[in-house]
Amino acid sequence: MKKAFNYLVVLIVLPIIFISCSKEQVYENSISFPNNTWQRIEEGKDITFEKINIKSVKDDYDFNISFIHKPTINVDQISFILRIISPSGISKETIHTIELKGRDKDKFIGNNLGEIIEIKEVVKQYTTLPEVGEYKIIISNYSDRYEIRDLEKITLEVIKSNLDYKIEK
C-alpha cells in the first residue's frame, strides 16, 4: 500500500514540476502557403500574424519561427524580414536567415517527418517590448529567388524568456 502511495505521489508531483519549469507561451499560429509557394515580389510575400497580446513590459520574450517544407524545396536557406509593429504603430525590423541544410549542403537540418521536414529556430531572444497591447508581426520573403517552392507552412511562436536572473535597468 505504501509503495502504491509513493508511486501515486511521484505521478502527481513530477508533471507539476515539469509544467512549472516550462516556458509560458504567449502566442502561436501557423499559416499555410497557397500552392506550397512563398512569393518574393507579388502578393503573398508578406505573412501577417495579428493579435499578439502582450500583457507586461517587464517580461522578455523569445520569437521562434518554424518552417515545414518538402525535401524538394528549391533553396538551401530561407531569408526573411521580421517586422514587429507595436500597438501605437512603431515598427522595428530585422533580417534573418535560417539554414535548411548542414555545412556539407546534402542533408536537411530539422526533424524529418517522412514526406516533410520541420525546422524551428529562435530568431529573437530576450526581447523587451515597449508597450502593452496587441502587436502585429509581418514576415516578408527576402530570398534571392523569385519564389520558394515546396514550402508548406510557417509558424510563429512567442514565449516568455526563461531568465534565471533579472538585471536592474
> Major β-sheet, in short?
5 strands, antiparallel
- Within the CATH hierarchy, at the fold level, what is the topology? Jelly Rolls
Q: Please state roughly what percent of the residues sit in beta strands, choosing from under 5%, 5-15%, 15-25%, 25-35%, 35-45% or over 45%.
A: over 45%
Query: What is the CATH class name?
Result: Mainly Beta
Helix/strand order, N-terminal first:
HEEEEEEEEEEE
- Silhouette: globular
Termini separation comes to 54 Å
Mean pLDDT across the residues is: 87
Radius of gyration: 20 Å
Percent of residues in helices comes to 10-25%
Number of helices: 1
Short key terms for the protein model shown above:
single chain; about 170 residues; mainly beta; Jelly Rolls; 5-stranded antiparallel beta sheet; 11 strands; disordered N terminus
3D structure, described in words:
By secondary structure, this protein is mainly beta. It has one domain: Jelly Rolls. 12% of the residues lie in helices and 50% in strands. The chain is built from 1 helix and 11 strands; from the N terminus they run αβββββββββββ. The strands form 3 sheets. The protein has a 5-stranded antiparallel sheet, with no helix packed on it. A 4-stranded antiparallel sheet has the order 3-9-5-6, with no helix packed on it. A two-stranded antiparallel sheet has the order 2-10. β7 (111-112) and β8 (117-128) form a beta hairpin. The radius of gyration is 20 Å and the shape is globular. It starts with a helix and ends in a 9-residue tail after the last strand.
Structure in a nutshell:
The protein has one helix and eleven strands. The chain is mainly β and 169 residues long.
